[in-house]
Design goal:
It is a single chain. By secondary structure, the protein is mainly alpha-helical. 37% of the residues lie in helices and 4% in strands. A two-stranded antiparallel sheet has the order 1-2. The longest helix has 18 residues, at 33-50. The chain is elongated. The chain starts with 17 loop residues before the first helix and ends with a strand.
Amino acid sequence: MTSAAADTEGNEPGYRDPGVDKLLLAGQRATSQPQRRAAYNRVQEYMAEKLPYTFLWFAKEIRVQTKQLQGVPDIGIRDAMNYTNQWYLSP
């Protein structure tokens, strides 16, 4: 996913970086498996060096939820934690 996918399900944190975009596009344009492998290895090295974000905390479970909390997807609450940017409180 390039920066064009920022703020979508494939790039929820909204990460944007022209250097990553260039490397990803090189991988997509590669015409052989060795070229593709080398391009994606460079993506991993670049991102490991830049470390765009890291998770410091992840809730294991929620025991109580108010009816005012809206926008929570109808999936297991642990998985729903990935969509907290879509939650909101209704009056």
